[in-house]
Each structure stands twice: as structure tokens, then as C-alpha cells.
Amino acid sequence: MRFRTKVFNIDCIHHFTNVVNTINKLLKKCTLRLTPDKLYFILPDQVSNGGVSMWCELKQANFFDEYQMDGVSSEHNEIYMEIIAENIVRALKSAHNAKSMKIKLTKKQTPCLTVEIELPSINSSSRLVTHDIPVSVIPRRLWDEYQEPTMPEFHVSICMPPLKTLKNIAERMKNLSTYLTLSANQEGDMVMKVETELVTVATRFQNLELPPFKDDDIASQAPSKLWPPTEMASARVDIRKFLQFLAGQQINPFKVICNIVNQSAIHFFLIHDDISLQYFIPAASV
Amino acid sequence: MKCILPAVNVKLFAKAIHCLAKIGLEIYFEPLENGLALKTVNLSRSAYVCFLFMRSMFHVYEHGCGDVTVNGDAVDTFKCKVAVKTMLQVFKSLSSIERSVESCDINLDEEECSLVFQLKCRHGITKTHQLTFQECDSIQAVFAKDLLPNILKCEHKLLSDVVVNFSPSLEEISLCVTPCRVNMKSYTDSDDEASLTMRTEMSLNPEEFADFQIGVDTDVTFSLKDLRAILAFCDVACIPIQLFFEGGGKPLIFTVEQENYFRANFVLATIANDEFSSQRENNVMSNTAFKTKMVNGSKNLQGKKSTTKSVGARYSRTKQSSINQQKTSSVLPNGSSKSTEMSNHGRTSPLNEIVEDTTRNNGGHADGSPEIPDQNFAVGQDHISSPVEPEYRDMREVFFAPCQNDDHTIVVLAPDSDEES
User: Fold this and answer.
1) B156 and B240 in contact (C-beta within 8 Å)?
2) Which residue windows does the record flag with biased composition (Polar residues) (chain B) (predicted)?
């Protein structure tokens, strides 16, 4: 098992930092999966996570100048490790104006992800910061828990309005209730609603874009084909989890797709040039 | 005592109060002949801070009180301590102080029992704070920083740049020096903890330091929180910072100084070197003759409660100060210059060191009370202590460890002890 990578471009470092910051906002502990061309940050669908799950993949070539890895074996050329997201964020904070950054898997007292950062100094010499982030390597037999989630069989799929706008609204709604109902139909209408005994607040968005359907993914679209286009599909979710998703965004996706499985879950899909991030929030029972 | 602080210096003074507040719970307020001293020591007595604002910092500085003599002894000026919280009230908001305060009058009248801070602000507003205080003896750390083998001097920015890389929850940091490299490392106490927390290390080139003298390769571990407090002050003072140190278990001194203006000394305890103390312990155990000697020696140092066990102990911030006092003192005897010299010259038998230590310990205390060293003792050391602390000879002190050797001084924290009669 071997992993080592190098970055010299400060923009790439900042870009990577943004991704990690986003992930840190969503979860505490995540699984980092390394393959020869991609990096994945995964939060598997577990009860202990409150049903929330996340899947984020990055193309390594877009971030790193050098990237070498050997997985656990030649037929399973991958590495899975559990890591505390906040630690990576802290380590990358030092890299704000770095000359170069190396990330490698090392064996110290415990397995560590070592981040070596070369910083400029007032004279010709450079300062070297090393962060050893403890990780636990996940054995081969447990890998199945961390497979890519299948696309849910959603009823309505819609492109979200700008997340900033949603965030501002959701933050105010949070003061009224702990749950928010997100609903949408296939004609480009979306509603965010909170209900209490005294008041009901709803914000409507109209004429939203509908993501184009791909014909190859028939299974997940099956329910939406049967769904009446004007009918609202809705899911009631924990408003804090929804806000966590909205507030932590630092990767400026060009499109955010929201898939609603009526009364059971919301699936967000962020699309960016070299990153894709999926986030699932289960519906709360009434 | 009466003084007036001009607007330009109020911010520095306020920042000093903020710094003191981060370390101790009480501020010792001491008007001296050459200026106003503010001191504090933290609860576990592992950090001591002394600010001396000299006459030139004030518009007006009336030391007052004069040199009254009672029975031929010079009685020093009235000293008091103020709870940090009350003092902070006066200088709460740095930004508003910077914006509006035109001068600050400080008035200490012992007859009237009043300590008054008056902030003269713009538009003729005057804010008057009458503080409660407690009369007390002085505290004084005894140290001879000029005799320490390792001296570093750098811009405070360098240290700030280092410190930002460390986790905010980290307690202690290690500074490791060799003639060609300076490393700062995060320090974790136990191995279980080490496997869970992130470790950070930063390495610097000696060229980055304005002054770089390393006499002894060593590493010292000290509180990061205290260092942060010091750096926060330096941020406003904007002058280079100096470090003086020798090794683990012996104090680390930070000095920030502007000639004839003000001076700040920060004395931090460092964690004793593990290997060395455990080695000592083993040796003590292996030789009963030495063991008894050692027990006597350490008893002399630490008072009746001490046991040999505490020889290997480290300081702990959370422990009661009395316990801590013992622990630190158990560490300090290693600080006698001879034993360090020996360890530098290829570690001669540690047994000899113990003999050295114990004999000196015994000798140093043949006549004195074990817990409160004789006043004369401190006077005897006077020529070593820098002129910085002129009031020093009149202080009643409880030493963490007495000085055994005439040529060298060990840092000692001298709190106003409850034990004195």
C-alpha cells in the first residue's frame, strides 16, 4: 500500500481546500477512498449518521501535479481509510500560501496521512510544516459498505434555484420549526414550507429548469414516468441537515439537482467541472 | 502613587492587562521607583509574567510614599493585588480605548484605600473606575536569563506564523533546537492520545532568527496557551521577542523589551525531560545508599510531604498549586549547572550526578528552614539578578527550589505564600 502526491499550484491547493471545507461542514468523520484516477470522500448510509449519506468524487489529475498509488493488491488497486474531516481542514489551513504541498500515507506510531507543506519565509530558506493526521485503514472485507449509492427512484427531479437564496430563507424558517417540507412538481415549481400550530410559511419558486433525462437510467426514472406532472412530490426533512448542506457550499457548482422521492428522501446532486457531490437526507416521519 | 498615561501608551497598557488576564487570576500592582510593575502568576504556578512600565512611558509618574524607614529597614512601597476581572472592566474594549481615550490617570492612595483609574475620553467624558484591591506582598520570579545557554531572538511574527499551524485545542508545544535547525512540535501526553490526535511539526531555518545562540541541543515543552497570550501582546507591542532557555524541567523565559520604555518578562515552566528523570529514578532505586541520601535531599527541598516518587514527576497544570510546587521543585534540582554540564560532556555516570545534587542540596540547606528559605539567601543572590527587579531583596519568598550554586541561579517562583508567619 503506497500513496504519495504533490501539488505546486496554489490554485489547486485552494480548490482542494474548498472541497475539503465543504465536506467538513457536512460530516465529522468520513472515509477517503483512493483509486488510481479518483479520490472519493464517502459517508456511508448508516443509522449512526442519522440516515444522511454523502458521496463525493474528484478527479485526481485536476488537483495534483504528481500522484502515485498502489492499492492493497494488484486486483484491488484501491485504499480505503477513515479520517476526521476537521483534521484535513486544519492541515490545509497551513497551506494557504504554500509553495508546495505533499500528501502521503505514512506509518508512524499509527497509520497517518502526512501533509507536508513548504511555506515561504522572509529570506531564501523555506519553512516546513508537517501534519500527521491519524487514519484507520479499512480492511478489504469491509469495502462493500462504501460502494456508490444507487440513484434513488425519484418521483420529481428539478434544478434548484441559487443555494444562497435558499440558505437565507431556510435560516429564517429554522426559527419557526425544526422540520421543513420541500416539494416540487414536474412543471418547474418548487415549494419550501414550514408548518407550526400558529403559522405556515411557504416560499414558492416557479419556472425552474428541469434536468434532461438520460434514457440509460431507466430504473430510477420509472416512478417519475408514472407521476402526474402537476402533482407535488414532497419530503419533510430536518431543517438543520438541509441548512448544513446549503451553508457549507464552497465549490460553486454550476448546477444543483434535487431529486425528491415522495415522502421518503431528498437526494441532492452537485455538478462541477471536476467534482461531483451527492448528499441524501431521509424524510422525517410526521 | 499617582501617574498619568498618555493616549499613545494606553493601548499597550490595556493589551498588557489582557495578556495578564489570560494567564493569572490576580494582577499584582506594584509601584516601583523606576516605574509601575504589573505581575501575575497562574494558578498552577507554571507561568509568571512581569510587565514593567518605566517612567518615560508616563506623562507624570509620582512614585509617592517615599522611602519610609521603620527600625532602620527600608519599607518598600505599598503593593496590592487586584482581581483580573475588575481590572479588565476598565480596559475592556481595545478598539474604543484606541478611538476615544486621551489619557489614563492611575491613582493609588493607601491612606484612603483607593485605587482609581480615570479614563479621560474625547468630548470631555471621564470614566472613573474605583477598584477594590487587597494589600499583599510582592511576588517575584528569580531567574538569571543571561546565564542560560540558549538564546533566540526573532520577530514576534515568526512565532505567530508558527503557532497558527497548531490545533487550537493543543495544550503543549515542544521547541527543539540544534545549531542548524529549530523545530516546533505538538506534544501529547500519553500514547493513546497520540494515536488519535493530529501531530504537527514545523521546522525553521536559523537564518530566520535575528539572534541565534544554541549552547545546548535541547527540547523544551511548555504551554501553548501561554505562548499564545504572549504573542497576542507582542502583536500590539510590535517589537522582537527573545527566548532564553536551557532544557526540559527548567524555565523558558520570553522577554519583550523596549529600552527605557517598558519591559515584559514571561517565565514559563517546562516539562522535565522524561528519559533523564526516569534514569535518575532507576539509579536511585538500584542503590539504596544513594536512595536514602536522595530522600534526605529531596526532603530538604520539598518539605515533609515529599517522597522519592515525585522525583520523576512532571508538572501538571491542573493539580493544586501546592502539589505542583513539590513537583516542580523535584524537577528543578536537575537544573544545577554542574549536572547539565556533565550531561553535555557525554553523560558521565548519573550516579555522580546524584551525589553532586544531594550534597549540594544538603549543603544549601544545612541551616535554613526547608520550606521557606532564609531571606539572606535571596539577598546573597542579589548580584546575579538583573537590575530589572530592584525590589527583589525585600520580598518574602517561597522558592520552588532553592539555588544551590553560587554562580548560577535557578528560576524560582516566589508566590505570596500562605505558610509564612
Assistant:
1) yes
2) 295-310, 318-351
pLDDT of B192 = 67
Domain assignment present for residue B41? The answer is yes
- What range defines the domain where residue B51 resides? 2-142+402-419
Q: Is residue B391, in this structure, part of any structural domain at all?
A: no
Cβ atoms of residues B247 and B218 within 8 Å: yes
Consecutive H or E run containing A159: strand A156-159
CATH of the domain at B298: 3.10.150.10
**3-class DSSP state of A270:** strand
Query: Do the Cβ atoms of A110 and B164 come within 8 Å?
Result: no
- Residue A36: how many CB atoms within 10 A of its CB? 12
Instruction: Output the CATH code of domain A2-146.
Output: 3.70.10.10
What fold, for A156-282?
Proliferating Cell Nuclear Antigen (3.70.10)
Per-residue model confidence as pLDDT tens digits over A246-280: 887 777 788 899 999 888 889 998 888 888 888 98
Whether the complex's predicted ipTM surpasses the cut of 0.85: no
Would you call A90 and B198 a contact, using CB atoms and an 8 Å cutoff?
A: yes
Kindly list the residues from chain B whose CB atom is less than 8 angstroms away from the CB atom of residue A134.
195-198
Domain count, chain B: 2
**Residue ranges of chain A that CATH labels 3.70.10.10:** 2-146, 156-282
Residue of B155, B165, B196, B197 to mutate for A, most A C-beta atoms under 10 A: B165
Whether A10 and A97 have beta carbons less than 8 Å apart is answered as yes
Same-domain pairing of B204 and B351: yes
**Residue A200: which of A223, A176, A167 has the closest Cα?**
A176
Can you give the pLDDT at residue A17? 92
Cβ atoms of B243 and B135 closer than 8 Å: no
The tens-digit pLDDT sequence of chain A (286 residues) is 899 999 999 999 999 999 999 999 888 888 999 999 899 999 887 766 677 888 999 988 889 999 999 988 888 899 999 999 999 999 999 998 899 999 999 988 889 999 999 998 877 788 899 999 999 999 988 888 888 877 778 888 899 998 889 999 999 999 999 999 999 988 889 999 999 999 999 999 999 988 877 655 666 677 777 888 888 889 999 998 899 888 877 777 888 999 998 888 899 988 888 888 889 888 887 6
Q: Are residues B271 and B347 in the same domain?
A: yes
Q: How far, in Å, CA of B288 to CA of B284, rounded? A: 7
Size of the A and B interface in Cβ pairs below 8 Å: 62
Are B13 and B109 contained in the same domain? yes
B161 touches chain A (CB under 8 A): yes
CATH of the domain at B28: 3.70.10.10
Mutate one of A101, A117, A132, A137 to test the B interface: name it (highest B CB count within 10 A): A132
